[in-house]
Backbone:
């Protein structure tokens, strides 16, 4: 019986290791007010998944990484924070992103904070 329990524990630990994620960075969505974010704001929730899309042909930033929520463009990873992500993505690494804060400030407007993970 003990051997079965230990075996189940090892299998569970192996599953967790194969699903491990490494936190690469935390950022705010840049350009949020220029895209679809304002209209979608009421529907977004903490922990929602975001999609990161590499835009290597972007005219303004060769390291551009677009941020989307359910297929809608919210903005970009800030230029000062996108170089490492762009390189990882250019080398085929899979990234995952998740909303960590939906903030509203009278002076600064609304913004979204998100974490980016390198997944295995």
Residues:
């Amino acid at each position: 019986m003990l051997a079965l329990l230990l075996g189940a524990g090892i299998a569970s630990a192996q599953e967790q290791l194969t699903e491990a994620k490494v936190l690469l960075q935390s950022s705010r969505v840049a350009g949020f007010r220029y895209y679809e974010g304002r209209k979608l704001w009421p529907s977004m929730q903490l922990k929602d998944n975001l999609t990161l899309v590499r835009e290597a042909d972007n005219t303004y930033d060769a390291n551009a990484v677009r941020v989307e929520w359910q297929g809608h463009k919210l903005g970009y990873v800030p230029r000062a924070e996108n170089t490492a992500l762009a390189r990882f993505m250019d080398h085929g690494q899979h990234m995952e992103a998740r909303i960590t804060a939906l903030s509203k400030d009278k002076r600064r407007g609304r913004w979204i904070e998100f974490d980016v993970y390198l997944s295995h």
